[in-house]
User: Which sequence fits this backbone?
């Protein structure tokens, strides 16, 4: 029984450190954050961080991987949600934009601290990002093939759609006048204009 307790306690400690790292990175940026900052926010000694994580960069990688995997699942589910490319793109952009508003603190770190990852970790995250790009690109290509979309440069349209959603994490505030659902709905409508939906 105590083995299970030790594991759950270790998991809870790792989760506290990840939450603290998210808060610190969001406030000070990766390079402006020290391991002492993270440990203090977690209510631990700086040495405790190294018991559970190899480095500050490993914390960034875990935050980034979790965020990117969640986004990939969301995008793939939306892309597969309808045979109609208009409806699939509407849901994909809505869900992507709304999620970037809801998770704006973590999304800011996930999208704007990539350069701080080790080359190996960056390569892994880049591969996930490429899958996200492909899922969106496939919906746009489907729309072009059926005549539902009319855009001269589908790849650029896809980059623009993802960039618009990603940037929400930079400016969104919880006390603002737009809810995540408002943003998702408006961005979905703009997305359909960008791809030239009839």
Assistant:
């Amino acid at each position: 029984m105590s083995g299970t307790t030790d594991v759950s306690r270790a998991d809870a400690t790792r989760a506290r450190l990840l939450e603290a790292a998210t808060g610190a990175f969001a406030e000070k940026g990766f390079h402006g954050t020290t391991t002492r900052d993270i440990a203090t926010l977690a209510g631990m000694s700086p040495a405790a961080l190294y018991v559970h994580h190899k480095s500050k960069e490993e914390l960034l990688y875990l935050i980034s991987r979790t965020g990117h995997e969640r986004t990939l699942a969301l995008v793939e589910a939306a892309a597969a949600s309808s045979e109609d490319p208009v409806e699939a793109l509407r849901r994909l952009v809505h869900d992507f934009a709304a999620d970037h508003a809801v998770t704006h603190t973590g999304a800011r770190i996930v999208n704007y601290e990539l350069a701080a990852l080790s080359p190996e970790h960056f390569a892994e995250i880049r591969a996930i990002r490429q899958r996200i790009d492909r899922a969106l690109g496939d919906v746009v290509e489907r729309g072009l093939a059926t005549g539902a979309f009319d855009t001269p440069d589908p790849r650029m349209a896809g980059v623009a759609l993802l960039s618009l959603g990603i940037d929400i994490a930079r400016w969104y505030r919880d006390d603002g006048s737009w809810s995540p659902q408002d943003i998702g709905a408006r961005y979905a409508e703009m997305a359909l204009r960008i791809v030239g939906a009839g």
Remarks:
- The radius of gyration is 19 Å.
